[in-house]
Every structure is written in C-alpha cells, then in structure tokens.
Amino acid sequence: MKIFFATSFSSKIDSEGKVLPEFRASIEKLLSRYEAQGHEVFCAVRAENWRIAAQDPVMALKLDLQHIKKADKFVALLDEQVSAGVQLEIGYALALGKEITLLAVLDAKLGWTNQALMKLTNVQYETV
Amino acid sequence: MKIFFATSFSSKIDSEGKVLPEFRASIEKLLSRYEAQGHEVFCAVRAENWRIAAQDPVMALKLDLQHIKKADKFVALLDEQVSAGVQLEIGYALALGKEITLLAVLDAKLGWTNQALMKLTNVQYETV
Predict the structure, then answer these.
(1) Deepest in the core among A2, A10, A22, A100, taking most CB within 10 A?
(2) How does strand B2-6 pair with strand B73-77?
(3) For residue A112, is pLDDT > 80?
(4) Is there a contact between A116 and B84 if contact means CB atoms under 8 Å apart?
(5) Minimal Cβ distance to B84: which of A92, A113, A119
(6) Taking all residues of chain A, what is their mean pLDDT, rounded to a whole number?
(7) In this predicted structure, what is the pLDDT of residue B108?
(8) What range does the domain containing B98 cover?
(9) Cβ within 8 Å of A, B 8-37
(10) How many CA atoms does the CB half-sphere of A104 hold within 13 Å?
(11) Which CATH number characterizes residue A114's domain?
(12) Does B122 touch chain A (CB under 8 A)?
C-alpha cells in the first residue's frame, strides 16, 4: 500500500535548517514501522533529506498534493501546535476519500477540529 | 454563485461563548459584500448565530464539509494564528477543485504553506 506520511518540521530544525536529530529519529521510527509491513511511504521531510527545502515552496506543495492523490492511505502526525500544512493535507486527503490515520503523542491536547475529525468513519486515531 | 466562507472564531468569543461584536461586524461586512453581488453565502459562525456551537462538533464538521462540496467558490479568512479548521477546509476545497479566495489583513505574516498556496492557479489572494 502507498502511504503518505504528513508531519510538520518547520519548528524542529537547527539554525542551519537541518532537522533536529531527536525529531528525525522519532519520524524514522514511525516510517520504519510502516515499511516493515511492506508499505511504500512518502514523507516530504525525508524526501528533502531532512532539511528545510531549498526547493521552491509552490513546487513542494504541488508535489505533496500529487503524492497524496497517489496514496492509498494518509497518515498525519499531529502536534499540539497546529500545522497549516498538515491540516491542509488532511483536508485534501479527506476530500479524496483516503483512509486516514491521525497519530498524536499520548495526552496531546488537540483542538476542536482534530477531535471531531477522529470520529469520522474513515479516520483512525492512534497514540505514539 | 454559492460561496462557502471559512473563518476561525474560537479565539474571538467572550466568556459566554458569544462572538465579540467587533469581529462579528468585520465578518458581516465581508459577507454583505458577496451578498450584495447576488451570491448565496454559507458561513458557519453566522449559521450558528454567532456563538460557539452547542451542536455536536462531529455533526458541525460534517455539515461544513457538505457545504463546501455544494459551493462554487470557497473563501477563507486567514489569520496569523493558524486555524486547524480553516486549513483543513482549504485542503478539502482544493482537492475538490473549487475556486478559492484567500483573504488576509494587509501585512499579515502568513506562513510557508499559505504563501505557497496563494500561487496555485485556482487560488486568488486579496487583502481586507
């Protein structure tokens, strides 16, 4: 199964734009879990080699949306700090009728929208 | 034309859950502008009579998504504080190929995602 894995990383980088090692390790662990099950996973921050993209933001956004279209399943890692990009991608996946899994750390305080979202029929919620 | 007007109001309410008068007036002004042009506008906060809904959040979310589906045009009022709900709805409208207008106050500092979004072909940007 093709999986699109959405996560925000703009607040998880060092002064040189490189993703913080601890955050990278936590994402790699999650991606490995899916890949060990035989799934093919696209994750933008990994595809961009764990740095804030030098890539044109418009091209990067379009590429993400294309990958969501092609995916069978959409997984988003939620954070208490709302991500404009992750939320947009969730809405995009939702409209396309994708199977959706929302991941959040145990006890994360999620807002009204994401709490409602978890209760939709094609949305699963898991703590990590 | 049917317009869906998305705005966050969870941070614009008083202690009783009622929308602050100044914010309400600013939204009503924007809605009137579209209605004066003959458009039919759905705006959740107005439909909920300018209070945080007593309505079940899941039903409210589903209702919003249904209204986006039926709309010809999707308008979102952006704020520097990212709204999980508005972003989700933008993504939903985008996947459905709706004509999208993003509104923001002049000089609002918008993040990476919304700046990229403005440059997509079916997305217009206007300051209010």
Answers:
(1) A100
(2) parallel
(3) yes
(4) no
(5) A113
(6) 94
(7) 87
(8) 2-127
(9) 10
(10) 19
(11) 3.40.50.450
(12) no
